[in-house]
Design a protein that fits this description.
The complex is a heterodimer of chains A (114) and B (110).
Chain A (H helix, E strand, L loop, with lengths): L4 E3 L2 E4 L5 E6 L6 E7 L6 E7 L2 E5 L6 E5 L5 E5 L8 E8 L9 E2 L3 E5 L1
Parallel strand pairs in A: 2-11
Antiparallel strand pairs in A: 1-3, 3-8, 4-5, 4-9, 5-6, 7-8, 9-10, 9-11
Chain B lengths: L3 E2 L4 E5 L4 E7 L6 E7 L6 E7 L4 E4 L2 E6 L4 E6 L8 E9 L2 E4 L3 E6 L1
Parallel strand pairs in B: 2-11
Antiparallel strand pairs in B: 1-3, 3-8, 4-5, 4-9, 6-7, 7-8, 9-10, 9-11
The chains are: A mainly beta (114), B mainly beta (110).
């Protein structure tokens, strides 16, 4: 158990809908990262938050947004969903916002868009 | 943009032999490098890391080598065990921006 909790584990929704994925980081971790893993693909970096502020941005679509709340949990919002958004979405957390530290991953949320 | 590349999608080795997984990166700003292991239906788990000021880090059967001039790192597993069969991701980070390679599926045959 990495200490990072993601909910829900599975989500099935229709095209055009909006969903929210939730991540609770490990106790004491200030950074949260979001990644997307499509079928047999690598981990695509979406976005990173550190202590409530956006720190780094990757290949995140404009239809997607995220935030980190004062209690440090994070939410990833996906809107106007398309079939191609079906993927595993991972959240990871780390102590620091900079480098030189490992990130710990949650179990992921499997999103299926039908 | 693929800043971190793992060019071998798969690798098969015999139990007891050495497994060598390779990774290349393009961004010279990366200053910390990590290897993660992933089993199906689980999140990646941290394996080993190396700072850009070092060229080698060892942890038990796992050793990571970094060649900064070539922008190349590798993970050596000696001896390989069937339980090591998994997908291995390399990652590189700078200022919190952590990028992953596409992964290499390692199969260790008994």
């Amino acid at each position: 158990d990495s200490g990072v909790t993601q909910t829900p584990k599975h989500l099935i929704t229709a095209t055009g809908q909006r969903v929210t994925l939730r991540c609770s980081p490990r106790s004491g971790d200030l950074s949260v990262y979001w990644y997307q893993q499509s079928l047999d693909q690598g981990l695509q970096f979406l976005i990173q938050y550190y202590n409530g502020e956006e720190r780094a941005k990757g290949n995140i679509l404009e239809r997607f947004s995220a935030q980190q709340f004062p209690d440090l949990h994070s939410e990833l919002n996906l809107s106007s969903l398309e079939l191609g958004d079906s993927a595993l979405y991972f959240c990871a957390s780390s102590v620091a916002g900079g480098g030189n530290t490992e990130a710990f991953f949650g179990q992921g949320t499997r999103l299926t868009v039908v | 943009d693929q800043q971190v590349k793992q060019n071998s999608p798969s690798l098969s080795v015999q139990e007891g032999r050495i497994s060598i997984l390779n990774c290349d990166y393009t961004n010279s700003m990366f200053d910390y490098f990590l290897w993660y292991k992933k089993y199906p239906a689980e999140g990646p788990t941290f394996l080993i890391s190396i700072s850009s000021i070092k060229d080698k880090n060892e942890d038990g059967r796992f050793t990571v080598f970094l060649n900064k001039s070539a922008k190349h790192l590798s993970l050596h597993i000696v001896p390989s065990q069937p339980g090591d069969s998994a997908v291995y991701f390399c990652a590189a980070t700078t200022l919190g921006d952590m990028r992953f390679g596409a992964g290499t599926r390692l199969t260790v045959k008994p």
